[in-house]
Specification:
Number of strands: 4
Structural class: alpha+beta
Radius of gyration: 14 Å
Bound molecules: iron/sulfur cluster
Order of helices and strands: HEEEEH
Low-confidence stretches: none
Shape: globular
Number of helices: 2
Distance between the termini: 35 Å
């Protein structure tokens, strides 16, 4: 079977790794930037609000791609 994967612009995502493990029922890694700064203010991609400069998308099925701590301007694959 030949399966084609489309890359479509405009996904309005709502992703973060800031929720404490005790508050969710699935396994989730913590944001390394939040851990380094002892905060929960950094969010990966929040619908209609912001996208973290270290956010590099999502890999199938549910793996977040994060460039932290490399400065965003040196890790941007589109530069
Ligand atoms: S992309 Fe990385 S640094 Fe940015 S909020 Fe998500 S996990 Fe944290």
């Amino acid at each position: 079977m030949n399966t084609q994967i489309l890359k479509l612009k405009g996904a309005n995502m709502d992703i973060d790794l800031a929720t404490p493990a005790a508050d969710i029922t699935w396994q989730q890694d913590a944001c390394p930037w939040n851990q380094a700064e002892s905060t929960d203010s950094h969010r990966c991609a929040v619908k209609n609000i912001s996208i973290c400069p270290h956010f590099r998308g999502v890999e199938y099925l549910d793996t977040l791609l994060c460039s932290y701590p490399i400065p965003p301007q040196t890790s941007n694959p589109n530069v």
